Amino acid sequence: MTTALPIGPTMTTPRLGGLPLACGRYLEQTYLRTAISWADRWRYADLDIVTGIYLITDAVDRLRWLGQASRSDGLLGRLDSHDHNPAKRVVFAKVRVLHLRDDTPPEALNAIEGRCADLLGIRQIMKPRRWPSSHNWLALTA
């Protein structure tokens, strides 16, 4: 059984512009300006990203997933795990990434993801999806 994924806002340059600030001292690099196609997500393997925040959009750049990766098989392993879900495979078209330092503490990673959700204004419009709280974000990332 598959379920429909909620549809978020269109990812425009102004909407994406504030996201790097959410990362505070943990930001390594942004890969937001040009999205990589879902089929070409393997390109992130060359960048050796272990920890990061990722945004997945559909073919018309509407946000379909905001998530985090911090695992031994890195960002690519996390992205590949989504490909096992038929509902995601149907709509996932492009990926953008905020590359974070590998030593980003879990509490800071959660707060960064939560802050990104707040900046994108998706907590209400993308229900039933939920994101970590951004509580104490500034203290955790400054």
Number of helices: 6
Residues in helix, % = 25-40%
Main sheet: which strands, in order across? 1-4-2-3
* Alpha carbon gyration radius: 14 Å
Mean pLDDT: 94
Oligomer: single chain
Described by the principal axes of the CA atoms, the overall outline is globular
Tell me the number of strands: 4
For the record, the count of structural domains works out to 1
Q: Which regions have little confidence, pLDDT < 50, spanning 5+ residues?
A: none
Major sheet, described briefly? Answer: 4 strands, antiparallel
In N-to-C order, the SSE pattern is HHEEEHHEHH
Structural class based on helices, strands and sheet pairing: alpha+beta
Percent strand equals 15-25%
From the N-terminal CA to the C-terminal CA, the straight-line distance is 43 Å
Descriptive tags:
alpha+beta; 142 residues; 31% helix
Please summarize what this structure is.
The N and C termini lie far apart (43 Å). The model has no long low-confidence stretch (mean pLDDT 94). This protein has six helices and four strands; from the N terminus they run ααβββααβαα.
